[in-house]
Prior knowledge:
Helices cover 41% and strands 18% of the residues. It is α/β, with parallel strands linked by helices and 326 residues long. The strands form 2 sheets. The chain has a 5-stranded parallel sheet with strand order 3-2-1-4-5, with helices on both faces. Helix 1 (16-34) crosses helix 2 (47-60), helix 1 crosses helix 7 (182-191) and helix 2 packs across helix 7. The site of xanthosine-5'-monophosphate (XMP) has 13 residues, from loops.
Amino acid sequence: MNSNVRPDSMARITTKELADKFIAEQVAAVREQVGDKKVLLALSGGVDSSVVAALLIKAIGKQLVCVHVNHGLMRKGESEQVIEVFGKELDANLIYVDATDRFLGLLQGIADPEMKRKIIGGEFIKVFDEEAGKLEGISFLAQGTIYPDILESDGVKAHHNVGGLPEDMEFQLVEPVKLLYKDEVRVVGEALGLPHTMVYRQPFPGPGLGVRCLGAITRDRLHALREADAILREEFEKSSLAEKVWQYFIAVPDMTAVGVIDGKRLDGWCAIIRAVNTTDAMTATIEEIPYELLHRITARITSEVKGISRVLMDITPKPVGTIEFE
Ligand code: XMP
């Protein structure tokens, strides 16, 4: 499948049977394209790169080399899930790079959002490039390009994503899901046996928690954000809101509010809940979360997460508020 145009005759992949047929075709196509050569993939753990990884493991096994760069800004448990699913269960050729110190070191004292994004994106490319440079005999680069990437951004994977790849890398591309829409990628992912939580993962920006730990990132505030976010996700999953709400997360700005814990004054951070619904991320509405659930989340965050003294809720639709805070 070399063309970047989806043929009108291509059936929408909505069932396991159709997904199995697509997988069989792609396995054959990838084997033919790649032969006995090696393929490199930046595996973020997001839906698209995970589905491509699982598909290529099926097609070429250990000829695929996956590199997972943990920039230290992942959500709780995400890198662990990549290691568990790809390193252990699927026995992939997985290189795990914990680059947390590098990223957080460079980000120290940087409050400007654009600067933060630039640092994270630039360093990601550097780390990936370094890892690729250590490998021998790589001829192909796999990418989780999907059809909206082609339609919206000239075929460049997630135009504002971390994971734009070094321009001087001269590999041939392997893009087995480039003619699929997101919902189809998910059906294919499930047919490949990937965990539901991975296949239906909510969108997560490439710069990760870096755009939600507002202002200059510190390790302790980043840790508090990650823990509070994990509580929000857990409570949404328990209440089945996770299935209904398009994107939900916590942001923690660089400001404190006074609180009292065990009779002592605490200058703690504010955890801000944001939960939005949208179809295309261009506009978004606010999910009305039951108060009972909000009370439970607030009680858990303020008692379980060190350093947080208040929980707030952002009810600004897009426009005028963007989905992320930056
Ligand atoms: P905004 O904040 O612009 O976000 O309303 C719209 C959607 O895009 C996601 N987003 C990103 N996704 N890399 C990504 O892959 C990024 O750098 C990035 N920044 C924002 C955001 O989470 C929302 O779903």
